Amino acid sequence: MVIDAFMMLMTPTTLGVMVACAIYGLVVGAIPGFSAAMAVALMVPVSYFLDPVPALAGVVTLCAMAIFSGDIPGALLRIPGTPASAAYVDESYKMTCSGNAGLALGTGLICSSIGGIFGSIALILAAPTLGDLALQFSSVEYFWLACLGLTAAIGVSQGSAAKGVISLCIGLLIACVGLDPVSGQSRFTFETSYLSGGLGFIPVLIGLFAMSEVFRFALAPGDSDRPPISKLNGLFRGVFGEIRRLWFQILQGCGIGTLVGAIPGAGADIASYIAYAATKKQSPHPERFGTGIVDGVASASASNNASVGGALVPATVFGIPGDSLTAVIIGVLYMKGLNPGPTVFLTQGTLITAVFLAFLLANLLILPFGIVAIRLFRHILAVPRSVLMPLIVGACIIGSFAVENTVYAVVTMLIAGLIGFYMEENGFPLAPAILGVVLAPIVEENFLNTLVKSNGDLMIFLSRPLAVGLAMITLAIWVVPPLIRLVHYMKARKPTA
Amino acid sequence: MYFDDRLNGLVFILLGGVVVFLAQQLPTLTFIDYGPGFFPTLIGCVMMIAGSVIALKPLLQRGASITWAALPRAQSWPQALSAIGVVVGAIAFYIATLNILGFLIAMPVSLFVLLIFFDRRIVRDLLIAIIGSFLLHSFFYQLMSVQLPWGLLTPFAGVLTW
């Protein structure tokens, strides 16, 4: 099966698409303010017209490249290209200021590749094994698993939890428009034929991630003026010595990234923050962190790339996205007829293995492509945003139109863009919304189907050991943190009483 | 474009209320008390609760000054709204005229409006709008077979297709 999958990858079309996506991912990831999810969102309409293997190979390549290239403006301009690079942007920029840009970027590049390869191997080994376990899942377990995903989406969203809940509700509501998945009843369609089919996932996605960024630029175009780029020389000088010294931290970063990525709702940005904090905590000289040392850069950049592989595990095995990036990938999987779930390994085993191998290959390709990207960064950033943003609007319009072949899709994209703009400006995280769009049908379908099976008896949700385990984990996420806070509060009050 | 959380919370309390009201109009399934309205009702209720939390939080912080709405930079509201309006207007123009004018007219016009608003270099912007639209058309229409309307240019479709 592995050889067949490898041969599926080794076609000129697939390799060509992977190379094109690699270049596109590196360029978009390197432009400050553009997230990897936005890059993938704009790529989805193109993947619609490709065969499954090149489409999916292209998307995973794009993810890997965009996450890495976010490090480049972070190190040279102190502006993280993607949120995943934000954790160590100060560290790498201070290294640049002290004349060690080559060391910062070289270490980031090699560690990104190591992290990505680690994540890919974890994905290749863990996904089919978990798939076997998941075959025992019924609609009850899927319901709890999706609830766990929704819970984690709120739990790990940055900022106010209430705003995370609102964002999730917006995503769930978007998914409610159209025909009810169980009864076929129209919901929130206001008797229009376009809404009967539901709001298109791709226009919503493009609107939330890409169009919202255009509106933010329109409001404050001057904020994107860029300082001059520091001189870059000596790439890889001293890098290998540092990697040998920091092998444990890098490995730890890979492990943290893979595990955090696999938690629904957590993503590359959270993974890199945790890896950076863990390395700092274990360091014999934590006071030097933040002054420009390579230790934090190495583990965190390995971690954010490893998290993509980790996030693909629940995405492919259960159809539960690890983060907004994998939520988009799940959309592409559905679009290409590879409905995620344990049966995908039985029915489309070769195809899904080819996707995993493509991800592994993409992480190997980070090295040569990354070197070129670092060298060409000056030119990428030279394109003025005043020119780039209108072209992105053009890509958003045609991307939305292309998939549904109707201007209503452009209307959906525009409204989603305005909603995304309002949300971002007011501190509502976007990731829970897109997770809500993906998870809503899974939660609702499994909930109602289970109740139909049990004639409305709610106790069926606690009738199987696996379901009880998942329910307990879900409830623990809600109950344990407030309990811990209450205990701390009580302890703090005790001496004064 | 920041709004005070009291306003944000109120918006979501009202939205949640509307969702619950609309969801209550939907029928239930034949044998059980749940139906297509159950899930939206739940979402609406959660939205109202979360909206209340957002709205009430600033009320508990006594003494803090209230800024109902603010802009990210020192600019006037008409300036900010016109910038948003230009983007919305350019897309709305495309939506309204695509089938009449065709992609190769509607897209360059929309792009040019945006380019001239942000970039303010007539010749360069005109060239980018035309070349950019042509490249988008070539990629999506010729390579990806997306059925982009020709509109007024239908008689020239054969000439303009390579």
Task: Describe this structure as you would to a colleague.
The complex is a heterodimer of chains A (497) and B (162). With 497 residues, chain A is mainly alpha-helical. Chain A folds into 2 domains: 2-440, no CATH class; 466-497. Chain A contains 22 helices and 2 strands. In chain A, helix 5 packs antiparallel against helix 7. The longest helix of chain A has 34 residues, at 101-134. Chain B is an all-alpha fold. Chain B has 2 domains: 2-70; 77-160, no CATH class. Chain B is built from 6 helices and 2 strands. The longest helix of chain B has 25 residues, at 77-101. The chains are: A mainly alpha (497), B mainly alpha (162).
CA-atom Rg of chain A in angstroms: 22 Å
- Mean pLDDT level of chain A: 84
Low confidence ranges of chain A: none
What is the H/E order of chain B? EHHEHHHH
Q: Indicate the proportion of strand residues of chain B.
A: under 5%
Shape of chain B: flat
Please tag this protein with its features.
heterodimer; A: about 500 residues; mainly alpha; 2 domains; two-stranded antiparallel ribbon; 22 helices; 2 strands; B: about 160 residues; two-stranded antiparallel sheet; 6 helices; about 70% helix; flat; DUF112_TM (chain A); transmembrane (chain A)
Sequence-ordered SSE layout with sheet pairings:
The complex is a heterodimer of chains A (497) and B (162).
Chain A: H1 2-9, H2 12-30, H3 36-48, H4 52-69, H5 71-77, H6 89-97, H7 101-134, H8 139-155, H9 161-176, E1 178-179, E2 186-187, H10 193-196, H11 201-219, H12 239-245, H13 247-262, H14 268-282, H15 294-317, H16 324-335, H17 344-347, H18 349-382, H19 385-404, H20 407-425, H21 431-453, H22 465-493
Antiparallel strand pairs in A: 1-2
Helix pairs in contact in A: 1-18, 2-3, 2-4, 2-18, 3-4, 3-11, 3-16, 3-19, 4-15, 4-16, 4-18, 5-6, 5-7, 6-7, 7-12, 7-13, 7-15, 7-18, 8-9, 8-21, 8-22, 9-21, 11-19, 11-20, 13-14, 13-15, 14-15, 15-16, 16-21, 19-20
Chain B: E1 2-3, H1 5-24, H2 38-60, E2 69-70, H3 77-101, H4 103-118, H5 122-143, H6 157-160
Antiparallel strand pairs in B: 1-2
Helix pairs in contact in B: 1-2, 3-4, 4-5
Protein name (chain A): TctA family transporter
Transmembrane segments (chain A): 6-27, 56-79, 100-127, 133-153, 165-182, 194-219, 311-334, 354-377, 389-422, 466-484
InterPro entries (chain A): DUF112_TM (IPR002823)
